[in-house]
Each structure stands twice: as structure tokens, then as C-alpha cells.
Amino acid sequence: MPHIEIISASIRTGRQSHRVALFFKKFLEERKLATANILDLKAYNFPLFDERLAHQPNPIPSAKEFSEKIKGANAVIIVTPEYNGGYPASLKNVVDLLYNEWRRKPIAIAACSDGPFGGTQVVTSLQFSLWKIGALTVPARFHAASVQLAYDEQGNPNPKDKELIEKLAAGFVGELLRYVPNS
Fold first, then answer.
1. What are the distances in angstroms from CA 35 to CA 25, 66, 153, 156, 179?
2. Helices H / strands E in the chain, number of each
3. Which of 5, 54, 73, 154, by CA, is between 20 and 30 Å from 62?
4. pTM to 2 decimal places
5. Residues 79 and 123: beta-carbon distance below 8 Å
């Protein structure tokens, strides 16, 4: 069974996108599609990027742990909010921190917003950064609009939206798994 690391990118107070990370962990595990783990950037609290991990003389243990988790994953789902059309500095920080760990790694982007567009603009800027370092971003996207209404704090979809959310998630995850060898 493949293993997927889910990056919860927001470190903001009152963040809503973490609900989508929780949703995907449950979705993957309940359907036995993959084992899953959430890498919560709020919990990691990395210092501001000053050098790639591979070039740091004394990297902090949490950065080495994060690197190993990305290396060990068959694929990654990045759950990111959209801030002013872009992605949060916390995510840029870890994208730049690693290099070889991202190369040819299948990555799917789940974009979130508290408004009706579901983070449609964040995908372009994030995808460009990932392409530049050789990551394999899959074509499927997941857009979570009005996150605070569509998911509860445990990541459960609103009952009136559940069927549609799960249908969209199935297509999104299915596309990601097509890029994972032997899945």
C-alpha cells in the first residue's frame, strides 16, 4: 500500500485549510487507498529559510525528520490556502528547504479558500515553484471553497456537500495514485 504525506501548509491563527488535510487523511485511510500522515507546518514551526537542508552544517532535527518523511513518501498532497493569490510563506519555506527530496515526487495540490473560488489562483504559483525544483505535479486539482462551511473542525464534510466532495476527492486521489509506481 502506498504511503502519502499530507502537508498542511497554513500556520495562521484560526486556519481553516487544516480541515481539508484532516479530510484527506481520513479519506485515504478509510478507503484503504494509502497510509497517510499529516505534516503540519504549524507544529514544525521552522525558522525562516536561510539555506537548503543539504547545505546546512547543523540542521535542526525537525528539518531532518521532515526531509526523511518526504523522502519516504510515495506521494505528497499539499493542502494550501490562498493568500492574496499566492501560497503562504510557511509553504515556500519548506519547498525551498528541500531539493532532492522533491525531485520526481508525485505531488497533488489541494487549494482552499474561505470564499467561493476554492483557491484557484494559488495553484499556478505553487505549481511553478514545484516544477522549478523537479517535482512531478499531477494534473488533478482539488479546490475547497468556503472551507469553514464545507468541513467541520475534524475534517468531516458538511452532510449536504459530502457526496460531491467525496466524488471530487476520489478523482483527485485516483489521479495522484496513477503516478505512484505499483499502486
1. 8, 17, 21, 18, 16
2. 7, 5
3. 154
4. 0.96
5. no
Measured in degrees and rounded to the nearest 5, phi and psi for residue 2 equal -70, 160
Extents of the domains making up the chain: 3-178
Instruction: Report the CATH fold assignment for 3-178.
Output: Rossmann fold (3.40.50)
Q: Average pLDDT, stretch 143-149?
A: 94
Residue 183 has pLDDT above 80, yes or no: no
Show the cell assigned to 8: 498542511
Taking a C-beta distance cutoff of 8 angstroms, is the pair 31, 63 a contact?
no
The string of pLDDT tens digits covering residues 21-52 is 999 999 999 999 999 999 999 999 898 888 89
Sign of the dihedral defined by the CA atoms of residues 70, 71, 77, 82, in that order:
positive
